[in-house]
Amino acid sequence: MVEYQRSNNDKIIESQDPTLVYADADQTTITSRNILNGEAKTPYEIFVIKRPSNAYFKLTQINAKQQIATIDSNAINKQQLELTKETKKILGYTCFKAKTTVNSNSIEIWYTTELNVKGGPTDLGQDLGFVLEVIRNGNSKITASKIEQLKSLPKTLALPASLQYVDDLTYKDVLWKSRFVQVPVFDKEKISFSDDSKSDSILRFANGTVIVKKVKFPKIGAGQTVFVQLTEQSKGDAYDRTGSVFIIPQDQDLSFLDGMQKGMDTLPLYDNGNGKKYQGVIRTSNYTPILELMRFFTPFGVSQFNYLKLKGKTWQDSVMYRQDISELAGALSDQEVYIGAFIGNYDKNGHEVSLEITVHPGFDKKQSFKKLLPIFNSTNVMEMGGQEYGTMFDNEQGLSVTFELKEDAANVQLRYTTTGHGGWGNGDEFVPKTNSLYLNGAPLFSYTPWRNDCGSYRLSNPASGNFSNGLSSSDLSRSNWCPGTVTYPIFIDIGTLKAGKHTIRVQIPQGASEGTSFSSWNVAGVLLYD
């Protein structure tokens, strides 16, 4: 038996679970001390090499009841190793050096032939002798720290008589997914505009352009990482559309769901004096606006319009949007919440989406959840249900909301997401506009949101219009978004806020309308604090 320790830059990694390798003429088993003592947390892997064929068995204990395994007959025999004449002593044994490269990582393998059996802490060099040290990129090491001669191998090292064997790709997929929690929300659900749209297990609103589902989330531990992931394909709509994934808070007397079910005018109305009424966009004493998890934009017709061929271009089959939303974990942990997805379109076949939220083990277990206070959201996800566009920035007041903190708040940040719309030459989609934010009348933050990397996503936009100047519509820079991408929030540091009422105002020099063409801004603000 050989025990190994890991080190980085010659410093032993603390609180590690040492690798243990047991070997005889017939078999090499790679395990760990915690696994052997029954103390390892699932999922964990055990590796077995059968001699002399070098068949490489990988076994994962998924949980207390499930095991999965695969066999690779070539993993060891196909290794291409460069043998050198360099030698050194490890635990008194003369070791020779072999070299190889794995995924651009330089690997040194130090092995001895003096133990008369073959083995090692990884699959690398298993047929050379007994590997006593593996060094990756000169600084990450797995080094033998103890060697014991045993009379017999522990019986627990024998491969179980009955195992579920799968192909290597399936094995890797099952193992990978067992390491985190998947919370499925939507599976290939249509978001389209149709008078025939009806609710079933999925609630559908605004002629089917908004879908909503109630989802139960597990308890999310301190420091864990949360991701939202949505996959989209066009099923008929060729245009770039605004999309949003959001939660409908249920913490007050009124919720956005009331407006969806009873009519948007039942929600609090925001009036900035321009003659229009904006439904459900700001926080009030009895209403909380939607909490946006992710803002995304569909490309021009991905999948459905892939038949529009261009030489030298192979269109993507779908677009995947993925975003870290760990700062919003407190709105999900151990709760049952309404989660919605919206794509603004007037096409009867529209789009198809799949949505899941995943929870991953974290690194900083001292990190605690932020408290959340959704303040405003002018994204009119009920656009096809009568909700007014975010055109309130056509006068100086813009969007102003007064909210109340029940207690003093420390380390306050405003999670701010903004995108400009107005899809003609002089529209705000194509004209940079400064966003200015004020807190209690004083300037808080100012910047000009803009994306000039849209051409990077050309292969997701088969139906994008091509212009005489050699550009495509999907190439053009826009006000903080591109067809086929996520728009990420920015985090504006505020510091400390005392308990009581505060006012945040967003001012944007919104462009004037031209005929029936108008500009609008989708802005969302959430207060995060300790």
Q: Could you characterize what this model shows?
A:
By secondary structure, the protein is mainly beta. The chain contains three helices and 32 strands. The strands form six sheets. Strands 1, 2, 3, 4, 5, 6, 7, 8, 9, 10, 11 and 12 form a twelve-stranded antiparallel beta sheet that branches. The protein has a six-stranded antiparallel beta sheet with strand order 14-15-22-17-20-29, covered by helices on one side. A hairpin with a 2-residue loop joins strand 27 and strand 28. The longest helix has 10 residues. The radius of gyration is 29 Å and the shape is elongated. The mean pLDDT is 96.
Fill in the keyword field for this structure:
single chain; 530 residues; mainly beta; six-stranded antiparallel β-sheet; 32 strands
Short description:
Helices cover 4% and strands 42% of the residues.
Give the radius of gyration.
Answer: 29 Å
Low-confidence stretches: none
The main pleated sheet reads as: 12 strands, antiparallel
Q: How much helix, percentage-wise, in residues?
A: under 10%
Shape: elongated
Total strand segments? 32
Number of helices: 3
Which range does the strand content fall in?
A: 35-45%
Helix/sheet category:
mainly beta
Average predicted local confidence, pLDDT: 96
Distance between the termini: 51 Å
